[in-house]
Amino acid sequence: MITLRLADVATATGGRLADLSSGDRTVHEVTTDSRDVPDRALFVALRGERHDGHDHIAEAIDAGAVAYVAERPTSTAAPAVLVDDTRRALRDLARVVRERVAPQVVAITGSVGKTTTKDLAAAALGAGRRTVAAPGSYNNEIGVPLTCLAARADTEVLVVEVGSRGVGHIAALMAVVQPDVAIVTAVNAAHLEMFGDVDTVARAKGELVEALSPAGTAILNADDARVLAMAARTDAQVLTYGRTDADVVADDVDLDRLARPRFLARTPWGEAHVSVPLAGEHHVSNSLAALAAAGIAGVDIEAAAAALRAAPVSSWRSEVSEAGGVVVLNDAYNANPASMRAALDALLRIQGTVAGRSWAVLGLMAEMGETSHDDHRALGRECAAAGLDRLVVVGRGDAAAIAAGAREAGFAGDHLWQVDDADGAVDVVHPRVRAGDVVLVKASRVGGLEAVADALLNRSGAAP
After folding, report:
1. How big, in percent rounded to 5, are the helix, strand and coil portions of the chain?
2. Interval 260-302: pLDDT, tens
3. Which terminus of the chain is more exposed, N or C, with fewer CB under 10 A?
4. Whole-angstrom Cα distance, residue 172 to residue 140?
């Protein structure tokens, strides 16, 4: 972050200094977590459903914070800025930092692929521009401001992942982000518990392109009709990416033995050979979006493509590794029907190159709303139709409908297990898996199924 005086913090947030003599005290980072306090940080005390940051101000100061932002005075002996609403103060402070640094801001949203596209875009852009992007999925009303606050004085490009929990959420965050480039990856049946239907998802995701000025650029997935239709919602330049009829396209797509894509990217800035360190053909699309962002920023397209080959990506997203002859596809961070189908496709592609059996360890697809039970049952039927060798279903309730659907479609009962949790899945898979097998582990984050992948990879060490 850029260095700020506490007087600047008070001005930016509309707050007041608890002690006027502390106005020249400087802060170099911002944190909302009292357990993770960088050197010379400002602690912002947020009130949540389960915890109140005001109860942890003393801990933050003891951990090295030099000042705090709060809604009420405390007995902690440290400089403070007092505000009416700390969440609003965090957003206001982020907006000021974004405006002072003035980087090119690339904002990314979509039903699937947000975090992976963010990681790939950060790598591609970083090949030619000083780029900052948040780790993991910092995509909500707290994570987005924290991403903006991470911008340094020399940051040229800021990559921001933007999620949504309803219509209007992205629009509100855009007042902070003020994007120059907007990427929309896809619109499908994800988080329907909050949106109701896919058309409402599209309405909400499209708020990102509506936030662009006429000088901006919308990067839209031409293979998704709902995303492509967003071109009518902006006066900005529109650049499309996709498999065929688009500005940025992929030719000669191939997958290696671990289902990692390789292809020739054809772009307005030239051609480049691309390989991606993630399992699944769907990552061709994510990579094209990343290359489009790099091209707009003036990064050499071959350098951007080279950066994708070694792109560091967030954990539990299409990670493919081998241990003891077993291939493990760890995609345990999130799940919806579309991403489940993509992961199953990757599993079967890998199985086609190995000698053993295909295992799918599947759990809950969270926040699917009224269609959740039917969606899980349909997934089970798809598993049976795909010809999987072994299926382990983790969880009860809607998750259990995966097993029911598989049985209805004729999945062999002695090759199908239903367990309560990740430990139960480990107990099933660990003693039965053998060299040559490939195991997919996938569910929404609440399932904690990364523990299954970890157990398999720790059998005898992992190799990427």
Report:
1. 40, 20, 40
2. 999 999 999 999 999 999 999 999 999 999 999 999 999 999 9
3. C
4. 11
Residue 142 to residues 13, 24, 94, 115, 430, Cα–Cα distance (Å): 15, 26, 10, 16, 38
User: Checking DSSP bridges between strand 319-323 and strand 358-362, what pairing results, if any?
Assistant: unpaired
Name the segment(s) of the chain with CATH classification 3.90.190.20. 319-457
Task: Give the architecture (CATH level 2) of 4-84.
Answer: 3-Layer(aba) Sandwich (3.40)
Number of Cβ within 10 Å of residue 458's Cβ equals 12
Cα(336)–Cα(375) distance, integer angstroms: 9
Q: And the tokens for 112?
A: 């699937």
- The arrangement of secondary structure in 102-309, i.e. its CATH architecture, is 3-Layer(aba) Sandwich (3.40)
**Owner of token pair 């990064």:** 299
List where CATH 3.40.1390.10 sits in the chain: 4-84
Q: How far apart are CA 291 and CA 274, in angstroms?
A: 10
Structure tokens at 319: 């990670």
Thinking of the domain 319-457, which architecture would CATH place it in? Alpha-Beta Complex (3.90)
pTM: 0.90
In the sheet that 80-82 helps form, which strands lie side by side, from edge to edge? 16-17, 80-82, 67-70, 41-44, 29-31
